[in-house]
Amino acid sequence: MIGLSVAVGRFVEALFWGIFRVAGAVAGVLILGVVILVVAWVIARKMWARRKR
């Protein structure tokens, strides 16, 4: 019975670690995407300002 309990505990722990890894990867991709969008927006504004002069 103890062996089954340990196995279930390890499975749940592995499940949580997997969920946290995926959530971390998704959050990292989202943050990177936002940073890229902000940089592209700043560059586009600077180019637009130069073109108007």
Give a quick rundown of the structure:
The protein is mainly alpha-helical.
Task: Tell me what the structure shows.
The chain has 53 residues and is an all-alpha fold. It starts with a helix and ends with a helix. The longest helix is centred in the middle third of the chain and has 51 residues. The chain has 1 helix and no strands. Helices cover 96% and strands 0% of the residues.
Shape: rod-shaped
Strand content: under 5%
Uncertain segments: none
Strand-pairing-aware structural class? mainly alpha
Order of helices and strands: H
The major beta sheet can be summarized as: none
- How many helices does DSSP assign? 1
Would you count the extended β strands for me? 0
Distance between the termini: 79 Å
Assign a percent range to the helix content.
Answer: over 70%
Cα-atom radius of gyration = 23 Å
List the helices and strands and how they pair.
Elements: H1 2-52
Features:
53 residues, 0% strand, 1 helix
